[in-house]
Task: structure prediction
Amino acid sequence: LFPHLKNEFSRSMPGSLSGRTRSPLRLIASSSPGDLEEQASDISEISSVQSSMCRSVVENSTTEETSQTSSLIGNCQSRLGQDLLRMFLQEIAPDVIVEVSGRRIKAHKCILSSRCQYFAGILSGGWVESAGNVIILPPFSFNVVHFALCHIYSGVSTIPD
Result:
């Protein structure tokens, strides 16, 4: 699709992968069992969001909060959904606040605007920045808005207890 980027992409890959020009799916489909073990070692078992950056947040959480977070994250169907939801729930690098019913929820503009037309409309102008990066919602239930945001981040549609 982008032949001019092929060489640039190959040079940017980590050492052991840089010589490979086949797609990851072709690599897996055409590999012997020994090759698969080598390829698996090239891929990190944990995501960057699960790294030590999150440990301090988890360590400072109550048992109930940690249980609820784990339950929600466990319902995600993909690693990306899990990572984005963890980023939201553990308030990693937020850049906007959603205020509802007098309570504040920290979030990420890029996720909100890319996954929800409502927030895309709100965030498309410059007034959110001029309002201190706070989006004030009508008086909805805090729990409903929080669940909606969890869905926006992860696609999770199972309502927690």
